[in-house]
Design a protein that fits this description.
Oligomer: single chain
Helix content: over 70%
Distance between the termini: 63 Å
Number of strands: 0
Radius of gyration: 24 Å
Shape: elongated
Number of helices: 15
Structural class: mainly alpha
Order of helices and strands: HHHHHHHHHHHHHHH
Amino acid sequence: MRKKAALNKEVDLSAMVKSGNQEQAYEALQLYRSRALRYKSKGDISNAIQLTASGSICFLENEYETAGSELAALFLELVADTKEMSEDLRDKSCEIDDRFKTNSIARVEYLRSTVKLTVTCGTKELGDPMIHTRLAECLWYKYDKHCYYHFAAGEVPLLFCRLIFERFVESSQSDSRDRALIIGITNFLALENLRDAYELFYQYQRNNKSKNYSNQTKLVQFCDYLLQTCRRDAAPLFKQLVNAYASLLDFDESVPTLLMGPIAIKFFNIKPKVNPMMSMIQTMLA
């Protein structure tokens, strides 16, 4: 009987949201919040999570993005209290995400928060690949350079390659395609994911060949040499390679940073250079 009563209350709230009356919708938001927090105070975290999720979905479906975002944030807070991001809860978070406008700022913030939650409450060190992938696509269409990391953390080289060729379709855009390839590969390598870095490069070459684009550009050759070098214990060769192509790699500061930072350390045990003055200051402050 309690479950049935709770369901009726929820239906009443959704009707208030769907009424089209903004005052009723605002009242429904406060009731969703207060009821969810009441569930939590009674130790019924499961119903609190379910209520905030369904409320967020209802608001977003009826174009109340601010209210929907508020309940989505509360949903994530409640999930965090359980200290476990189960597959069911992950799927529920994706249901909420599906209701946001495709490239809205609110959606980006929600996905970023969800990624952080899957890091602290999930089973993977970097967070859930599916959520990373959703955020990567969203940022890609917003031309946000942080998308590259999330494609790598999402472990989706095929998707990333497809998007490169969808964006840069003209033969004259080879430089833009090649640069996106290098940023992608260096991000995969920075996460020690040589397998997906290779897969991205392989699929990229296949796409070039099918479209009669050249695979002999200097940037593509650099990627080829880099991947080959990462398979060997060849620190001197790696340094020579990066130095030889340095002038071509400065188009984006993230590329040399990743190469001489995490990639150099993880694949070749090359320690980053320390500024003597900074080292002295750190010693004085220690």
